[in-house]
Specification:
308 residues, alpha/beta, Rossmann fold, Alpha-Beta Plaits, 2 domains, five-stranded parallel beta sheet, five-stranded mixed beta sheet, 10 helices, 22% strand
């Protein structure tokens, strides 16, 4: 069941909800909500593979919230299938940021095909990490450079996991993937709760993540990520290893060794302290601070406060 595509269905029409769930229920994991506001916590917690939403031309709040979600760099590539209960009410798609649409009268004949098409199209978009559904390297680069070009002030944080390879070697890639998905959800949840707008979370690949916040929020955001991570990570270990607070695995040379629990290291660069003109300059500083954080025992974050 966990390998099925995840779909968020948003509709206030009970009869329509019942029909859609019946059509999709055997093929996809469907989570239903009566309105878009009630779905946001779920979407922030685990970005779905597709959103299906019923839209009426007069429902300005739903349209505004949907357009706001799709304008967010994190969720812009979330495919959205709109269902109209009447005629298609928009003359231009700039008014409504969806990827496909379907009239409710065609649901029983066309819904499965349209859903499959939306998912297939989304999988051809290469700049989404397939595991966490977070934006990848190209989006990260564009986010940093655009903010620098606009002379925005912000904090760029690089995060990665310490002792993740020994965990993978002992418990296997499947459990390792669950850890990575947890980290992606955790960072996304906390960053969005601290700064709902103009923040960003990306997944470079492997156990490397990026997040962007305003400079004033970076310390409390980083501290909360570390605190929550350290509380959650023991649950991924077997009971005996939890008791010992360590595991026996092999190092990169193939020798058996005792390793502590996974920790998270975060390096942070600020363009309030020194000016940057190119994303490579800022990412280099964040990466340097991440390496510095790794020198400390346990989870840690370090901020570059040097003046340019």
């Amino acid at each position: 069941m966990n390998n099925l595509h995840s779909i968020v269905l948003i509709t206030g029409e009970i009869a329509l909800k019942t029909v859609i769930e019946k059509i999709l229920g055997n093929t996809y994991r469907v989570s239903s909500f009566s309105n878009i506001q009630s779905s946001l916590d779920f979407i922030y917690n685990a970005i779905p593979d597709l959103m299906i939403i019923t839209i009426d031309a007069g429902d300005e709040m739903t349209i505004s919230l949907l357009n706001g979600l799709k304008s967010d760099p994190i969720f812009g590539q979330l495919p959205v299938l709109a269902i109209f209960t009447g005629e298609q009410p928009f003359r231009t798609w700039e008014q409504l940021l969806v990827d496909d649409y379907l009239n409710s009268s065609r649901i029983e004949t066309d819904l499965l095909m349209r859903v499959a098409l939306c998912l297939s199209r989304a999988e051809r978009v290469v700049d989404i990490n397939p595991l966490t559904r977070l934006p990848g390297n190209i989006a990260i680069m564009k986010q940093v450079q655009t903010r620098l070009n606009n002379l925005d002030t912000f904090a760029l944080a690089y995060a990665d996991l310490d002792f993740f390879k020994p965990f993978n070697d002992k418990y296997g890639f499947s459990r390792g993937d669950e850890v990575l998905k947890m980290v992606g959800r955790l960072i996304l949840n906390i960053v969005k709760s601290k700064q709902p707008h103009d923040s960003f979370v990306g997944h470079i690949g492997g156990d490397d993540f990026v997040f962007i916040t305003s400079a004033s929020l970076l310390e409390e955001t980083a501290a909360e990520i570390l605190r929550n991570f350290d509380q959650i990570i023991p649950t991924f270990y077997d009971p005996g290893d939890r008791t010992e607070r360590s595991i026996e695995s092999v190092d990169r040379g193939g020798k058996k060794q005792v390793f502590p629990f996974i920790s998270i290291s975060v390096g942070i660069a600020l363009n309030t302290a020194k000016p940057f003109s190119h994303y490579g300059e800022m990412t280099e500083v964040a990466s340097e601070m991440k390496k510095y954080a790794k020198q400390f025992t346990g989870s840690a974050y370090k901020i570059d406060r040097r003046r340019g």
